[in-house]
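pls read this protein.

:::
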Amino acid sequence: MEHAGLFAAAVLAAVASLAAHVALNCPIQPVPSPRPPPTPAPNNLLQRLEKLGEGALDAPEDVYVDAAAGGALYTATRDGWLQRMRPGNASWERWRFLGGTGLLGITPSADGAMLVCDADKGLLRVGEDGAVTLLASEVEGTTIRFADAAIEASDGTVYFSDASARFGFDRWFHDFVESRPTGRLLRYDPRSGQTSVVLDRLGFANGVALPRDEAFVVVCESSRYRCTRVWLKGEKAGKAETFIDNLPGCPDNIRLGSDGHFWIALIQLRSSWLDFVTRWSLTKRIVASFPALLDWIHATAKGAMVAQVSEDGSIVRVLDDSEGKAINFVTSVTEFNGDIFLGSLATNFVGKLSLAQVAQEQGAVPS
């Protein structure tokens, strides 16, 4: 009986100690996460990709293809460089140095400049001469904490995302686990130099894209497994609605393809442990209070996936690497001239995959 009493006292002491640790050290204010949608049967077609410049890049998050330059590739890496690969050249060159570790989305401007989302600084413009201009670091009296992705409309307006009002790029996983919708879709007007909020309360606002007619703008909500669109033209102008929901992964960057379909990178933040932890606020608080445990939980997620989605929000096809054997944690996908190019925060290369090869292999699989 005495031993039982001692054991109970020890358990109570341990629980009290854990509760105190969590109360003092938990960095998040979590809410339950949406239940992850089911994933399709794997096809592992991304394992056929070619690795461009393997070993030369440090986590190339986004990839832009310059069609006017014959398919020159651009990416931004964690060492602060914008890097370029010219057509017919198998190596990357350091093109422009911006500094910092937070260079994310890149997109062209009609005047020949490049727009860059620096997660730490805001929306940047990099001129053809290399001059860097900060276009937006605040909006309506608040700091842009996590500039993520951008797209320029034909009238020069720039739509870009501010992923989180709570955490910066270095702690993006905290935002995913916390699951509070604090992201925003922003609009930069080059004529007035003013930035405004288009839509707020987004679940980790990420990739941004426009269709060919620019009738709406799409923003990805990574922690909600969906993309939302805001109508820019017509009777629905100003109205926000779901573009596509229940995606089999967390949508990151989104780009318009040459056929009018969109390509979306779907981060695979799934594992039995991760699904368990993110189901309840209490388990989130406990895990987030121990940095090493949070890192371990994050590391249990493996795989890569991209989806082609029609202009009406229907999935056309999904390509994946279910175990991350060739590529893991794909954050962007860009289509050009029959190939797709893949960026990732977990690689030292840009992936390239022939869609003709994909179609051939898919056609060879018995239905």
